Amino acid sequence: MAKTANLYVRIEPELKEQAEQILNALGLPPSSAITMFYKQVVMQQGLPFDARLNYRKPIDISSITKDELNMELEKGYQDALEGRTKPINEVFESLDKEFGI
């Protein structure tokens, strides 16, 4: 199918530059990346990633009750038993990136 449709968007110049540097390193033109995104939207029948408002920030244990702490610890224990774990360096990198901690 011929590529005849145009897409015009406004984004922050810094975001555009950062994304294009990564795409260039991958050898991928921005138009191809956008096409890939659109194809994934069609295939997934929605966004190809989670888009949620109920994101949970890390819990400050000084602000929760003993029962709430035990419940969170139990969740972590169950995750460990079921293999839902990540290497510690990934966890610290993610915390630093998302929360600056």
From TrEMBL:
Pfam families: RelB. Keywords: Toxin-antitoxin system. InterPro entries: Arc_rbn_hlx_hlx, RelB/DinJ. One of its GO terms (biological process) is DNA-templated transcription. The keyword Ribonucleoprotein does not apply. Belongs to the RelB/DinJ antitoxin family. NCBIfam families: RelB_DinJ (TIGR02384). This is Type II toxin-antitoxin system RelB/DinJ family antitoxin. It comes from Peptostreptococcus porci.
